[in-house]
Structure formats: structure tokens, C-alpha cells
Recover the amino acids of this structure.
């Protein structure tokens, strides 16, 4: 679940290592460990002449160079977009991407594959330890790239923004600085009906009475609590009553079904700020503490959470997106599912003040603010550095869907 909070702009450009801030080596190692049983007997070689036994996986086709001919197939129509076939050579930077980083995300998609890709997942798994060149050769053989356009066929740049998973300190019980509750869904919450607003929760005793006992943990900063809700999930290091600490994930579990309104846009409309990045907003709030409550109430939408344990493997991935699989830092995006179906591999190109991206990603999430044919939200990872990147990214976008032939 994703929402855009603010208009993001900046003139600084991070180094390439910072753009990959969340693509740690541990992700690849742990993901490989999770599938070692599948890969133990697999090799990248031409198929044997014998026929596979019933129920056995078919061998990979020979990975040979495929001519990049001019596409002759028709454009594909989606409910919210038009896909135009193109050559692989039309994808900027395709031969330079470290595609093995995206394979972790593709393996996750194969846990809940869309029907169009289900037959390819056994090959995707066996290519996990292949070289980027072998992976690219396989994609050229199996997939056709399509340029994603609006339904009217206009070729215009879309919009790329970014989101992340915040990490905060929390307490299991209120006390000291920890006075801001994070709630599980209250009893009787109906997903099809609007519930009370954020202001109602803060000011009406009868509403708080309905939430009594639904507190999961307590944060120290109400603005951090709003950021957690806007991003849709987060990690908290909870101090238990006995003083012990443990890291858990707070995963999206529902909302009050009130409309989302951007608090950053509200500040802009008030003429309060010109820098609508998170650093700019927090600096303004620090100077105007008397306006914090109005800032919070400008967004009536409230998100409720459920607590999930974090295993060592879980820590290397993000929360589950709308596809139902864990997000991979730097390789998962949120899209409008009317434009691009979940589980689709996508070639993403974006150049702006925050990052230059030419990479393979997987469409695995969505959000109420992610609407339109050429629109994506880039999952940056977790923690402060990912938050800094996500808080400033707002730049042009081009997308190519990679679809089975």
C-alpha cells in the first residue's frame, strides 16, 4: 500500500552506491539459500536428447543469440494503457544492467505468479545463478518488450516517485516520550464503510474507547506515526515491559477509508513552505510546533497495522506488496494495475536530479496515488537513507513491459 505525501525536488545527485543503498549482498546470498534445493541439480546447458520424466521440469532451451528484428506484432490494449511492441535495442541501457539483482524480485513473483508467467517460473529459478548476459539472452528468447503508453497513444514522459519502509524506536506500553499509539484494526471495522477521521480519533473520547486494547506499540513522534501510515508499513524496535528489545514489522492491515490528502500539499496551499521535501517539512514543523496538529489533521486517512516477526531472511526484503510477495529493494515498483499487471517484469528508465535509473524491475505493488499508464513508485528499501532518497524523488519516467511471446 503506497501513498505519495509530498512534491519532491532536489538538485543533489547521490553516488551510484547510494542509489543501490538497499541492494545488499546479503539479499542475494539469503535468497539463493532459500532456493538452493531447486538449484542444486540445475545447470545452464542445452537440453538432453532424452524426454523428461512425467512431472519433471523441462530443460532450458539453448541460450543462443537472438536476432533483434523489427517487431511486427500488434499493440496490446490494457484497461489503462496501450502497449506498443519495440526492439530490445530500443531499451536504453539494457545490456549494462546487473540483472541478477532483479532476479531476487522475479523469484518472489514466482511465489504467486500471474497466469501469463507461470510456465516460465521453472526457467527463472534455474537462471538465478546465471550471468547477466545469459539472463538477457533468455529474456530475448522468451519475452517481447512493449513500450507502455497512455490509451490515446501519446508518447510522453510519466512520473516516478519513491517510497520506503521507515524504521523507528517504539515501546510496548506508553511512558516517557512514547505517547503516540499505533493501532491494529478496531473491532467491527468494515472495509467498505468510512470510519472516523484522524481528528475524530484524537479528540473524541468515544472513538478512542472503541480503539482501547488495539494499541500495538507507542512511538515518540506523531509526525513519524503519520509517515509510517503514509508508507503503509515499517519496522519498529520495540522495548518490552521487561526491558528486552526486538525488531518487528508493522504491516498494512486496513484503513478508516477516509480519502488520502497530502499534508505536504496542504502546507504548500497554505503558503507555509516552498520546499515540500521531508527535510523541508520537518524543519518548518520544528519552527512552528503550534501548527503540528493542524498539519496532522489535514490528512483524515488513518492506516491500521498488524505485527509480523522478522526472520533473518525477512530482514533482507521489504513488506509484502499488493501482489502478495515481499518487495525487493531497488527492484520492486508500485504501478497502476490497470496499466501493468502485477508480476510483470518492466524495464524502467528515469533520469532526474535524484537518480539515473536504467534497470529491470518487477511490478509488485500499488497505491491510491499511483494512477496512470506511465506511473511508478520505486521501492527504495528501509531506514533513514532510503527515506532520504524516497523523500526527494520526483522525476520523468519511461516504462517497457516485458511480456511472454
Amino acid at each position: 500500500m503506497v501513498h505519495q505525501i509530498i512534491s519532491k525536488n532536489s538538485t543533489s545527485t547521490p553516488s551510484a552506491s547510494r542509489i543501490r543503498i538497499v541492494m545488499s549482498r546479503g539479499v542475494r546470498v539469503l535468497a539463493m539459500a532459500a532456493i538452493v534445493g531447486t538449484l542444486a541439480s540445475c545447470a545452464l546447458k542445452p537440453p538432453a536428447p532424452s524426454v523428461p520424466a512425467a512431472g519433471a521440469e523441462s530443460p532450458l532451451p539453448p541460450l543462443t543469440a537472438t536476432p533483434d528484428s523489427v517487431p511486427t506484432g500488434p499493440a496490446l490494449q490494457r484497461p489503462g494503457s496501450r502497449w506498443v511492441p519495440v526492439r530490445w535495442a530500443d531499451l536504453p541501457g539494457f545490456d549494462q544492467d546487473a540483472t541478477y539483482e532483479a532476479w531476487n524480485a522475479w523469484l518472489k513473483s514466482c511465489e504467486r505468479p500471474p497466469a501469463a508467467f507461470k510456465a516460465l517460473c521453472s526457467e527463472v529459478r534455474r537462471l538465478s545463478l546465471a550471468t547477466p548476459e545469459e539472463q538477457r539472452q533468455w529474456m530475448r528468447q522468451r519475452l517481447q518488450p512493449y513500450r507502455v503508453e497512455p490509451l490515446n497513444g501519446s508518447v510522453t514522459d510519466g512520473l516516478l516517485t519513491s517510497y520506503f519502509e521507515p524504521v523507528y524506536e517504539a515501546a510496548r506500553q506508553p511512558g516517557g516520550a512514547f505517547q503516540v499509539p499505533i493501532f491494529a484494526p478496531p473491532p467491527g471495522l468494515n472495509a467498505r464503510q468510512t470510519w472516523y477521521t484522524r481528528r475524530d480519533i484524537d479528540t473524541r473520547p468515544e472513538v478512542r474507547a472503541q480503539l482501547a486494547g488495539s494499541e500495538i506499540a507507542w512511538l515518540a513522534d506523531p509526525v513519524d506515526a503519520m509517515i509510517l501510515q503514509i508508507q503503509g508499513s515499517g519496522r519498529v524496535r520495540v522495548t518490552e515491559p521487561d526491558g528486552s528489545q526486538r525488531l518487528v514489522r508493522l504491516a498494512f492491515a486496513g484503513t478508516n477509508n477516509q480519502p488520502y490528502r497530502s499534508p505536504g500539499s496542504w502546507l504548500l496551499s497554505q503558503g507555509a513552505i516552498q520546499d515540500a521535501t521531508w527535510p523541508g517539512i520537518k524543519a518548518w514543523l520544528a519552527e512552528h510546533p503550534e501548527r503540528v496538529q493542524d498539519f496532522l489533521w489535514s490528512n483524515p486517512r488513518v492506516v491500521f497495522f498488524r505485527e509480523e516477526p522478522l526472520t533473518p531472511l525477512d530482514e533482507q526484503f521489504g513488506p509484502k506488496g499488493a501482489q502478495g510477495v515481499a518487495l525487493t529493494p531497488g527492484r520492486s515498483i508500485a504501478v497502476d494495475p490497470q496499466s501493468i499487471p502485477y508480476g510483470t517484469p518492466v524495464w524502467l528508465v528515469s533520469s532526474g536530479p535524484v537518480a539515473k535509473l536504467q534497470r529491470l524491475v518487477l511490478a509488485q505493488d500499488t497505491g491510491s496515488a499511483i494512477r496512470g499508464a506511465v506511473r511508478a513508485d520505486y521501492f527504495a528499501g528501509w531506514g533513514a537513507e532510503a527515506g532520504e532518497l524516497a523523500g526527494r524523488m520526483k522525476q520523468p519516467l519511461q516504462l517497457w513491459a516485458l511480456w511472454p511471446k
About this structure: Residues 165-315 form a domain with the Ribosomal Protein L25; Chain P fold (CATH 2.40.240.50). The chain has a mean pLDDT of 86.
